[in-house]
Design goal:
5 helices; 27% helix
């Protein structure tokens, strides 16, 4: 379990550029894993494997997963990425604060951490050869905090600059069209095109 020790405004949140700098202690295979920052902390920008054609999986907020110690959500994300022809996967989150239970996410939006998180998103968009593939995979958890929808809209705008293509896997919720969470999906689940912008805009009317 990871319960935030404080709000992110009360701790030092490294800029994405500083977080990219490797620490001296190498605890995992850097040729295989992309982990930013590369140590366990109250926030996480990126966790995934390296490749030329990654599937970028989008959750709401990071939990306890680390390189060589993936949780069931990330294990499922990796299986589905490989089953759909991608050579790697990257887990990115709408909000970077770690919390095993999304109900423990901070109630007050941290604009500094969000700005740095968007730098991280732009970085991973730049890693793809061709149009980045972005898998919306946050389930109904987006309703936990009002600021999450606006964070996704910022991601969509960034993605447009790189020609990103958005997808979902599995059935979407009937009432609001929320993307399916990776847990409990078949490992051979296919990706379906997703109009993320229309979906986000519609959330304000529901």
């Amino acid at each position: 379990m990871h319960i935030p020790s404080s709000t992110t405004a009360e701790i030092e949140v490294l800029s994405f550029e500083d977080a990219l700098v490797p620490s001296k202690e190498e605890k995992y295979d850097r040729a295989r894993w992309l982990y930013v920052p590369d140590f366990y902390s109250e926030y996480r920008y990126i966790l995934g494997t390296r490749g030329k054609r990654p599937l970028i999986c989008i959750g709401i907020n990071p939990s306890t997963a680390e390189p060589d110690n993936l949780d069931n959500t990330l294990k499922s994300a990796e299986r589905i990425a490989l089953a759909n022809g991608f050579d790697s996967f990257i887990m990115f989150n709408v909000y970077a604060q770690r919390a095993t239970d999304p109900d423990d996410m901070e109630k007050e939006f941290n604009p500094h951490m969000h700005r740095e998180n968007m730098k991280a998103f732009e970085y991973i968009l730049s890693l793809s050869e061709g149009a980045p593939a972005v898998w919306a995979a946050w389930g109904t958890i987006i309703e936990k905090r009002a600021y999450l929808r606006d964070c996704v809209l910022d991601m969509i705008e960034l993605g447009e600059r790189y020609g990103a293509q958005w997808f979902t896997a599995g059935s979407r919720s009937k009432k609001k069209g929320h993307p399916h969470h990776p847990l409990y999906l078949r490992k051979d689940s296919c990706l379906d095109p997703f109009d993320a912008k229309t979906y986000c805009i519609s959330l304000s009317d529901k």
